């Protein structure tokens, strides 16, 4: 594995695959956000922009602005006492942020890959009365969404860092399930 300061290989097509995975993980949580804040379209715009990038559109400043706007929507939801909506908006912000994954072998980059899934899982947990079983089930679904390209890119980075509260815990769980799963290993093995 690369040390914490080295660059890794990361092609534009791989970046699009990661963004597509992040979008697929974040999109279901839009319902949580829009149920509580139906007139705020910032998270939807972030996911739509990330989806367009995953499908071949250019990575633009507008996409970066949409990511930040979704994070502002998350903060406003949190300030309004709507934590599930806040995490749903964070999932959208991380989906848009996936397009900006840096090719630096730093553990902090894992959030660009898995942050949307973890925040979506947390949004669903909170919507279900803070039920961790709901989050675990969501992560199992996210694991199934990760194709071999996403898993291969993930494995180029160091493991997810500690900290980050419940969302950090969810990121580490998903990281471990993708990185160390024998099923996932079969996906990335290539014949010699």
UniProtKB/TrEMBL annotation:
<dbReference type="GO" id="GO:0004527">
    <property type="term" value="F:exonuclease activity"/>
</dbReference>
<keyword id="KW-0269">Exonuclease</keyword>
<keyword id="KW-0378">Hydrolase</keyword>
<feature type="domain" description="Imm-5-like">
    <location>
        <begin position="12"/>
        <end position="136"/>
    </location>
</feature>
<dbReference type="Pfam" id="PF21805">
    <property type="entry name" value="Imm5_like"/>
</dbReference>
<keyword id="KW-0540">Nuclease</keyword>
<dbReference type="InterPro" id="IPR048667">
    <property type="entry name" value="Imm5-like"/>
</dbReference>
<protein>
    <submittedName>
        <fullName>Exonuclease SbcC</fullName>
    </submittedName>
</protein>
């Amino acid at each position: 594995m690369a040390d914490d300061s080295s660059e890794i290989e990361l092609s534009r097509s791989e970046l699009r695959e990661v963004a597509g995975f992040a979008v697929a993980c974040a999109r279901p949580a839009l319902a949580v956000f829009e149920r509580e804040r139906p007139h705020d379209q910032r998270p939807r715009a972030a996911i739509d922009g990330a989806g367009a990038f995953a499908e071949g559109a250019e990575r633009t400043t507008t996409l970066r602005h949409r990511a930040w706007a979704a994070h502002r929507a998350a903060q406003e939801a949190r300030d309004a006492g709507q934590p599930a909506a806040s995490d749903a908006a964070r999932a959208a912000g991380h989906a848009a942020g996936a397009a900006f994954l840096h090719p630096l072998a730093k553990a902090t980059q894992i959030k660009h890959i898995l942050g949307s899934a973890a925040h979506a899982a947390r949004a669903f947990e909170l919507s279900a009365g803070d039920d961790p079983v709901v989050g675990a089930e969501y992560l199992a679904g996210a694991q199934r969404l990760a194709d071999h390209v996403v898993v291969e890119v993930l494995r180029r980075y160091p493991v997810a860092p500690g900290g980050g509260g419940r969302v950090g815990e969810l990121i580490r769980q998903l990281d471990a399930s993708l990185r160390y799963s024998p099923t996932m290993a079969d996906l990335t093995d290539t014949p010699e």
